[in-house]
Records
---
Amino acid sequence: MEKHDFNPESLMMTYGYKPELSEGAVKCPIFQTSTFVFQTAEEGKAFFELAYGLREKSPKEELGLIYSRINNPNLEILENRLCLWDTSEDCAVFESGMSAISTVLLEFLKPGDLLVYSNPLYGGTDHFIHHFLSKIGVHTLGIMPNQDIDDITRMITNSGKADQLAMIYLETPANPTNDIVDIQMFVEIARQFSTKDKKTLVAVDNTYMGPLWQHPLQCGADLVLYSATKYIGGHSDLIAGAVLGAAELMLRVKTLRTFLGNMVSPHTAWLMLRSLETLKVRMDQQTSNAQIVANFLNRHPKVKHVYYLGLLKENSKAFSIYKKQCTAPGAMVSFDIEGGEKEAFTFLNHLRLMKLAVSLGSTESLAEHPKSMTHAGVDPEQCKKMNITDQLVRLSIGVEHPDDLVWDLEQALAKV
Ligand SMILES: *Cc1c(COP(=O)(O)O)cnc(C)c1O
């Protein structure tokens, strides 16, 4: 037989799981155990030597199972399967997206360092940067989506902290307006500010697109982060996070995770293994529904503007970035309603199928009002600059029949 490389969606049911190690069970059981039995004391000693880096791994040797804060089969199989989507060397799963993000920032930043980040950021990330990192003496510099490379390079140089630029942290497309930035451009900026003994890392929160529609590691980023609560979990029934990247960086991330103890639980990891089996079909259906919804809203007289990657003007800068780094427009559709908060709330209160809730990427469609909900903590001046106004409504489109979604939007808009 010729060699054949299977696509990730074909491997999500089986990859990394050996039935013969689990009584032949076709499905991976939940390894609901805190600790693992060593066959001999010598084996226990050998496992710990590897876990604590006391000696080099011999070829073919693998770290044995020790204790579920360090390793557990559900977590390892899940991490191996997530690596397939992003073609990454290694992955670490966390108990939330925020714990994945905060662990990465804590591991790679120290007092005195400079962190450059894109605006807008997820509210929790924004809070961690401005209220925690600044408290421990990390300097921060925010970039707006429309700034070009010369502008950004000048800002970094003028900050007087260019020598300490340790990380560039991006979120693209950004929540809630689908603003996008060019990952390769920031990789180039990071290269310019790297020195022989200090590499400036680029980390990308890929929650809005991934792991299907955008692959930051292939654009040259060093780390990719997820709130796995969103598309990866996909059923609004768990909270989790993930980080992926080269083995050398992931060893540092996993070591800090061992000591913070913020790994995901075996049960939640098992739920995600189940979710990954349908990831591709869910996300395909979601993005196809979202395009139908966006087209409908775009023609509606009570809708002023639709923020959706599938509606970008072909001659815009955003469109060329989108074409370069995304493979689909995603399932997040935001729009400005004619009027203000009153009109937006009337619309939200009359939805019959879509649920009024925050979060995104799940099988059911959700609607919310960013200015008064997810982005309530963001500086009002900053909100205005980023089009987060009283008129803005954010939709996360699920797997329902598109006719029912359009019907629901139409009847709720009629109430306004
Ligand atoms: C939800 C979200 C997070 C935080 O993830 P949790 O799983 O809620 O901790 C981070 N980034 C983005 C873009 C998100 O949407």
Note: DSSP finds 14 helices and twelve strands in the chain.
---
Amino acid sequence: MLFLKDRGFQHPAASEITPRTVYEQRRRLLQLMAAGSGGLAMAGWAARDAMAQIPRPNKLAALPGARSTVPGATTMEKLTAYTDVTTYNNYYEFGTDKSDPARAAGSLKTRPWTVAVEGEVKKPRTFDIEELLKLAPMEERVYRLRCVEGWSMVIPWVGYSLSELIKRVEPTGNAKFVEFVTLADKKQMPELGSHVLSWPYVEGLRLDEAMNPLTLLAFGLYGEVLPNQNGAPIRLAVPWKYGFKSGKSIVKIRFTEKQPATSWNHAAASEYGFYSNVNPNVDHPRWSQAKERRIGEDGLFAKKRATLMFNGYEAQVGQLYAGMDLKKLY
Ligand SMILES: Nc1nc2c(c(=O)[nH]1)N[C@H]1C(S)=C(S)[C@@H](COP(=O)(O)O)O[C@H]1N2
Ligand SMILES: [Mo]
């Protein structure tokens, strides 16, 4: 098995589980990046997915393909197709149909963009997006994403641990939670007049959850800048929690002593708890959470997959919930 031998004993980079041509294109791109060209044209990448025929961002967020050393950060499962990742979305500010965000999020202006970091921190400050892009080295993280609705994807994100940002603002001893406030601008977001959720879309984590190295500040996916519909220019990816915990297009990060109120909890407290850890043993009041449909596997004979405790990240995050009753603190 020459092929296997070629890989040696190293854990293969996520890029190696994408088709060979893609990997080669990525390597060429990395070489160009290393040579110092900043915002590159996306010709190679675009060619890869020419059949998709969807508009794609034309610049790279940052160096992609850098393998993460964070344990659990790279699942070897088959990646969900770029087309599915970017056309089957939940971003209610742009509509509630899965195809709405891809169609409507073109109106989102991602520059200029700032993220205010405030509350219980010794060094509160507002970061410009350009600063955030350079704050820490970008890594590729291939995470499972499990939506509370019962479907899942495998997405190669680009970003760095949220803890990199948190360390720099120095939380005070009173900081117990982190609140994430996302953009709410009627001029850019057609559905803000609707009342499906209270706007802005707000989410939160406990500080130790926010500090876990798996909690990712994402700026890109598939080695490219985040498409608007996926939460450009900056969003969270918290892989062991239901997808709605990962706010898109973040504008404010606030450290608090009290548990923040969140939009989904406000909309339906009995259905969407603050924790919302992926848990096959705690059903949503209206449906089972034991199984999931992997997007891209929905053919006639496709079987649903068993949902894993903490979405398969139990080894990395289980200890955060030691002694907690996860049925009560859903
Ligand atoms: N601001 C905002 N963030 C959001 C949402 C939203 O409607 N608005 N939807 C959430 C839900 S329910 C999911 S499953 C994920 C989907 O992310 P994706 O479209 O990039 O796969 O984003 C989450 N973040
Ligand atoms: Mo979701």
Note: Confidence is low (pLDDT under 50) at residues 1-17, 27-53.
